[in-house]
Each structure stands twice: as C-alpha cells, then as structure tokens.
Amino acid sequence: MPVLVLACILAGCGGVGKSAWQRVAGDGVSFEAPVGWTVSAAAGAVTARSGPVDLVEVVRFRLERPYRRSRLAAAARELDSLAVRLARALHGRLVHRQTTTVGGLDARSYRIDYPGKTQEITFALRGLDEYELVCRRPSGADESACRRLLASFRAG
C-alpha cells in the first residue's frame, strides 16, 4: 500500500500540478492543446502540432449565406458529401458521422481512417462563420487531444 501511495504522489494523482493542456487562441477562436505542442497561427487558422502527424487545428471560413438552424439538415447533406470526397482524396474511408453541438454551435462531425492515420473533422456553424476543427493522429493512438479540442473550443 505505501508503494502505491508513493507512486500516486509521484505521478501527481489528486494533487495540484502542472496542467497537461495549453490554451491556444487566435482569429476569434480558442481551444486547448497538449502542453509542448508547437502553436502557430496564420490568416484564419490556429494550429498546434507535435511531430509529423499529431495536429489539432481550427480554421475559420466565411459562408456565402448565413447559416440558420432551420437549414441544419441541408447543411448536413452538403457536409456529408464533402466528407466522402475528402475520405477518397486521403485514400481512406469515412467511418463515423454525427450531428452534435460544439462550443454551443450546431456542428457535424466525421472520422476518416486512412493509411496509418485517423482524422477527425468537425464543422461548426454560426451566422456567416464556419469553423473547421481538425484533429489528426496516428491510427489507434490516444484520442484525448481530439476530445479536448471539441470540449474546449470557443468562438468569439
């Protein structure tokens, strides 16, 4: 028992320690990414990455017409078609799709598996803004960065 308690203390169980997450912000959006990942921002995009594959990113696009909740079904059909084309372009397959809410916004989420990688893409819609939340990781790797991206996303 004392060894287990010591191991828990050394691992930071139940204590106040350094967070494993960093706040990333830019272009009117914010989200959390793992501490130590490299953060960059460009016009309309904020990205955190680690190595050649691991990435979380939010890209902001301007819509031609304002999104309205009454158009959710039509938007979902259009986004479904886009996700199928993207899966083909990645030589992968679309394995999951769902309508959800992210940061209080209507959203449509997809998961695409392709050789050695998994990419999750969520399109969140509000007015004239479309936010594309992307999370990429090696196949079978920990999903916590993807879950945290969606849970922490906020649009200003």
Structure explained in plain terms:
With 156 residues, this protein is of the alpha+beta class. The chain has one domain (19-155): Protein Transport Mog1p, Chain A (3-Layer(aba) Sandwich), CATH 3.40.1000.10. 24% of the residues lie in helices and 52% in strands. It has 3 helices and 9 strands. A 6-stranded antiparallel β-sheet has the order 3-4-5-8-7-6, covered by helices on one side. Strands 1-2-9 form a 3-stranded antiparallel β-sheet. Strand 4 and strand 5 form a beta hairpin. Residues 1-15 have low confidence and may be disordered.
By CATH, the superfamily comes out as Mog1/PsbP, alpha/beta/alpha sandwich
What are the secondary-structure elements, in order, as H or E? Answer: HEEEEEHEEEHE
Radius of gyration (CA) equals: 18 Å
Show unreliable segments. Answer: 1-15
- Per the CATH scheme, the topology name is Protein Transport Mog1p, Chain A
* Separation, N- and C-terminal Cα atoms: 49 Å
Mean pLDDT: 89
Strands, count? 9
Portion in beta strands: over 45%
CATH architectural grouping: 3-Layer(aba) Sandwich
Strand-pairing-aware structural class: alpha+beta
Read across the widest sheet, the strand sequence of neighbours is 3-4-5-8-7-6
Q: What count of helical segments does DSSP give? A: 3
Domain tally: 1
Helix content: 10-25%
CATH class: Alpha Beta
